[in-house]
Design brief:
This is IS1341-type transposase (TCE31). GO terms for molecular function: DNA binding. It comes from Halorubrum californiense DSM 19288. The chain has about 425 residues and is α+β, with helices and mostly antiparallel strands. The chain has three domains: about 100 residues, Small Protein B, Chain: A (Beta Barrel), CATH 2.40.280; about 60 residues; about 240 residues. It has a seven-stranded antiparallel sheet. Strands 12-11-8-9-10-15-16 form a seven-stranded mixed sheet. Helix 1 runs antiparallel to helix 2 and helix 1 packs across helix 3. The radius of gyration is 25 Å and the shape is globular. The structure holds zinc ion.
C-alpha cells in the first residue's frame, strides 16, 4: 500500500494550428469515434476480438498505432460492460468526436523553437500532418520544456481532443528519476487555503501537534489592481499594443510571485515528518452551487489553480504527495466543534455561533482543509483539536533576506530562498 510512484504529469495545451488545418484534426477525431463505434459493433456481433484491430484499421484511415489505442479503449469498455452484466443499458456508442490517442514520435512530435515555444506535429492521417504551436499555462509549459531537454523525463502518450470546439493536446510526461511517496504513507497533513492576498497553512500530525503559518502577499493583489486600472485606461484610449504589453508585464509579475510563494510553501512543508499537501479542488466547486460569495470572489481574483499547480509540482520534485478535497463548507465549519453555518464574517475574523471559538478565518479554513485531507487520504483518525497554536504570519519583502526561523534552506534544489520577514501576530 505504500509504494512510491513515478512522477507522472498530464500537461494540457491549446493548439494554435497553422494554415487552417484544424478541420483535419476534427475529422481525425471523428474517425477515431467511428473506430470506437465499429469496435463495439463487432464485439457485440461476437467476432473474435483478436481480429478486431485489423478489421477496424482497414476502414478508418488513421495512424496504425492510434487505431490500436482507440480499439483497446473500446474493448476495455466492452469488458466492463460484460463484467457488470448491465445489458439493459443503451449501447455506448455515440456520435461526435473521440480523443485521438497517439504515441510520442509516432502519432505526434514536439520540438522547441528558436522563440522558446514548443511546436507540434500531429499525424491526422498517415502522412498527413497538422502543425502549429502549443499555447497554455506557463507551469505546464515549463515542465514540458524541461521534459524535452532532460534525460530524466520521458514524453509519453498524448490525446488530441476538442474542448468547446477548440483543439487541445494533453501530454503525459514521466520523470524517471523522481518518485513521489504514496499519500497513504504520510504522518503530517498540510491544509492550504489560498486567498487573494495570503495563503494559510496548517499542519496536522497523526498525534495532535500542529502548526499554522499565514503567508501574506498583499503586493500581488495591489499590483493586479494597479495593472487592471492601467489597462482599462489604455483600452479606453484605443492603445491595444500598450494594453498587451501591460498584460504581459502583469502576468510575469504575478507568475514570479506565485513561484516564490509556492516554493516557500514547499520549504515550510518539508520540515514535517512525511508531509502530504492538501488543496481545495476548485474544479468541483465550479460545478456546484452554494459555495457562497467568498468562493466566487476568490475564484475571480487570483490565479488559484496556478498557485496550487506550482506548489503541487514543486512538492512532487521533493517526493511530497498532494491531495485534493471538495471545498464545500471549508470556510464555514468551526474547526473546534464542527458546527457549520453561513456566518457573516468580519473580514479576517471567524467566530463560531455555537461554541464561541474565534480565530483568523483563513487559518480556520486551512485547518478544515487538512481535516478533510486526513479523512479522504489517510487511514488514521483526525486528531482531537482542543486548542490551536498561535497564528504565525510571514510576509515577503521585495528584496533582501531576513530571518526565517522555521525554514531549512540547505537542501532546496538550486533555488535561492528570498526575503521572508517574521511577523508575530
Ligand atoms: Zn465551534
Amino acid at each position: 500500500m505504500t509504494d512510491t510512484q513515478a512522477l507522472v504529469k498530464t500537461l494540457d495545451f491549446q493548439l494554435d494550428v497553422q494554415s487552417n488545418n484544424e478541420s483535419l484534426l476534427k475529422d481525425a477525431t471523428r474517425r477515431a469515434r467511428s473506430a470506437y463505434n465499429e469496435t463495439i459493433r463487432l464485439a457485440k456481433e461476437g467476432v473474435d476480438w483478436d481480429t478486431i484491430p485489423g478489421r477496424v484499421a482497414a476502414d478508418v484511415d488513421l495512424v496504425r498505432n492510434t487505431t490500436q489505442r482507440v480499439v483497446a479503449k473500446a474493448l476495455d469498455a466492452m469488458e466492463n460492460y460484460y463484467e457488470y452484466d448491465d445489458f439493459g443499458r443503451p449501447s455506448h456508442t455515440k456520435d461526435g468526436t473521440y480523443p485521438l490517442r497517439a504515441n510520442y514520435e509516432e502519432g505526434y512530435n514536439l520540438t522547441l523553437t528558436e522563440d522558446g515555444d514548443v511546436a507540434f506535429r500531429i499525424s491526422a492521417k498517415p502522412y498527413k500532418h497538422v502543425k502549429g504551436v502549443l499555447c497554455g499555462d506557463s507551469a505546464h509549459y515549463d515542465i514540458l520544456k524541461t521534459a524535452l531537454t532532460s534525460d530524466d523525463w520521458k514524453i509519453g502518450t498524448a490525446e488530441v481532443l476538442f474542448q468547446n470546439e477548440n483543439p487541445e493536446l494533453h501530454v503525459t510526461v514521466t520523470n524517471t528519476e523522481q518518485t513521489v511517496r504514496d499519500k497513504l504513507d504520510s504522518r503530517t497533513v498540510i491544509g492550504v487555503d489560498v486567498n487573494e492576498d495570503n495563503v494559510a497553512l496548517t499542519a496536522l500530525f497523526e498525534d495532535d501537534v500542529e502548526d499554522t503559518l499565514v503567508i501574506d502577499f498583499p503586493e500581488i493583489k495591489f499590483e493586479r489592481h494597479r495593472y487592471f486600472t492601467m489597462r482599462k485606461r489604455v483600452q479606453n484610449a484605443g492603445k491595444d499594443s500598450i494594453h498587451a504589453t501591460l498584460e504581459g508585464r502583469e502576468k510575469r509579475f504575478v507568475r514570479d510571485r506565485l513561484h516564490k510563494v509556492s516554493r516557500y510553501i514547499v520549504e515550510w512543508s518539508r520540515q514535517f515528518d512525511k508531509p502530504c499537501i492538501v488543496f481545495e479542488d476548485l474544479k468541483e466547486m465550479r460545478d456546484s452551487i452554494d459555495y457562497g460569495t467568498r468562493m466566487n470572489r476568490r475564484l475571480h481574483h487570483l490565479p488559484f489553480r496556478t498557485l496550487q499547480y506550482y506548489t503541487s509540482y514543486k512538492a512532487s520534485f521533493e517526493g511530497i504527495p498532494t491531495g485534493w478535497i471538495d471545498p464545500y463548507k471549508t470556510s464555514q465549519r468551526c474547526p473546534m466543534c464542527g458546527h457549520a453555518e453561513r456566518v457573516n464574517r468580519n473580514k479576517k475574523r471567524f467566530k463560531c455561533r455555537s461554541c464561541g471559538h474565534q480565530d483568523h478565518s483563513d487559518r480556520s479554513a486551512s485547518v478544515n482543509i487538512a481535516v478533510k485531507g486526513i479523512m479522504k487520504h489517510q487511514d488514521w483518525n483526525v486528531p482531537g483539536l482542543n486548542s490551536l497554536p498561535q497564528v504565525r504570519k510571514v510576509r515577503r519583502q521585495a528584496s533582501g533576506a531576513v530571518d526565517a526561523p522555521t525554514v531549512t534552506h540547505d537542501a532546496m534544489r538550486g533555488h535561492q530562498t528570498d526575503g521572508i520577514v517574521g511577523v508575530s501576530n
